[in-house]
Design a protein that fits this description.
- By secondary structure, this protein is mainly beta.
- 8% of the residues lie in helices and 33% in strands.
- It is built from 1 helix and 11 strands; from the N terminus they run αβββββββββββ.
- A 4-stranded antiparallel beta sheet has the order 6-7-8-9, with no helix packed on it. A 3-stranded antiparallel beta sheet has the order 5-10-11, with no helix packed on it. A two-stranded antiparallel sheet has the order 1-4.
């Protein structure tokens, strides 16, 4: 990716097979590289981008929204690491609007995974779908969004 520095990530041999399995599962090779950036819809939600990735931090209580700066028209993948789990509430997924409003998870185009066993599809909660129990501190997940096939997948490791 020309806009962001690409670098090799150190891979612990213990997790190398899992990483390869996730890449095969999501058919990540070969894929075009997209530079995904986020923007905040609230003043008290900070977004910091650096060589290590993007950190989103909420500086107050209540629901806050971060959305992509660009429309994803084909395929995109991204990784999320839950630094503080569900000490509040966390939803990670995709939405088809730049201004989703305060309750973005309930927007009819919202799909993703949240805390308290919540899995949202089309803005509706499907409690515990697929055995989902919610985000925990230290969780790592890789997402694949295929807009042409209307598919959002998550490969989650704990």
């Amino acid at each position: 990716c020309p806009a962001k520095r690409r670098r090799s990530l150190p891979i612990d041999e213990m997790y190398e097979a899992e990483l390869k399995a996730a890449c095969i599962f999501y058919a990540l090779f070969p894929k075009p590289c997209l530079n995904l950036s986020l923007k905040s819809t609230a003043e008290d939600l900070s977004i910091v981008e650096d060589d290590d990735g993007t950190t989103v931090r909420q500086n107050a209580s209540g629901h806050r929204v971060a959305v992509g700066t660009e429309v994803i028209e084909t395929l995109a993948t991204w990784k999320v690491s839950a630094v503080s789990g569900c000490h509040g509430w966390l939803f990670v997924g995709a939405i088809a609007t730049a201004d989703p409003g305060q309750n973005s998870y309930s927007n009819s185009s919202a799909c993703g995974w949240a805390c308290s066993c919540q899995v949202y599809i089309g803005g509706a909660n499907n409690q515990g779908l697929g055995g989902w129990v919610g985000w925990q501190t230290g969780d790592h997940a890789i997402f694949l969004l295929d807009t042409e096939a209307s598919i959002l997948k998550m490969y989650h490791s704990r």
